[in-house]
Amino acid sequence: xxxxxxxxxxxxxxxxxxxxxxxxxxxxxxxxxxxxxxxxxxxxxxxxxxxxxxxxxxxxxxxxxxxxxxxxxxxxxxxxxxxxxxxxxxxxxxxxxxxxxxxxxxxxxxxxxxxxxxxxxxxxxxxxxxxxxxxxxxxxxxxxxxxx
Amino acid sequence: xxxxxxxxxxxxxxxxxxxxxxxxxxxxxxxxxxxxxxxxxxxxxxxxxxxxxxxxxxxxxxxxxxxxxxxxxxxxxxxxxxxxxxxxxxxxxxxxxxxxxxxxxxxxxxxxxxxxxxxxxxxxxxxxxxxxxxxxxxxxxxxxxxxx
Lengths: 148, 148
Prior knowledge:
Oligomer: homodimer
Number of strands of chain A: 6
C-alpha cells in the first residue's frame, strides 16, 4: 500500500483566490483545510479552516466571544462582510503551517510518521515534477490501517 | 440560529477507552478528533486524530520518516502492535487541547468566535448540568454561514 494507492483528489486554492470562495469550498465537506498551490499547481501550504474563521469573525468578537451574542444582526451578514474581497494570501497565518509532501512511492507507515511528526491530518502526494497528484487524509489512512 | 439548532451527535471516548477503539471510531469518519468525556458524560478535552498516530507510529519512524520505508513488515501490523492495550488517558498530549464549550443558546457568531480564538474546528454543546448535548464542527458552521 503506497501513496499512489491512497491519494485522492483534493480541493485546492491559489494565493489569489478570494477567501469567500475558500470558505465555500470548505463548507460541509469535512476537510481539515485546503491545499494552497502555486500557479504551476505545486503545493505551497495548507489553509486551515479555523484560519478562515479568524478572518471572518470581527476582532472584537474573538477577544470577547460574549460580545458576539449581542451583535444585532444576522451572523451570516457579519461573516460575509468581514471576508469581503480578501484573498487566501491575506488569510494565511504569518507562520505558514507545514504541509507534509510525499512521492507516489511512500509507504503507509512513512505517511503516518509524517502526519504524526507534523501533527498534520493531511499529506500531499506529488509527482516527480512537483505537481499535486492528490492528498491523503488521516481518516483515509486510519481506515486502511485499522480495517486491514 | 443557536447552538441547539446546530448541535449534532458526536462520538465520545472516556479516559479508560482503549486507543485502538478510538482509532476505529476516527477511521473514515472525517472527524477532527474525538471528544473525551468523564464518567458523568461531561466533556474534558479533545483527542486529536494526529495524536492517535503519534502513539501508533514507532518513535524511530517519527524521528526519521524515511526509516519507515524500510520497515520490513505490513504497516497495519506495526500500527496495531504499537497501540497495544494503551488507553486514551495515555494518549492525550501533556498539554491538553482546549475544547471550547457553549450552552444551547450560543449564537452562530459566538460559536465562530470561539472556534477562531481556540483554533478548534470543534465546539461542544452542553446542557445546564454540564452534560454533552452534541457538537458543532467548523464545516457545519461554515455551511450554515455561507449558504444562508
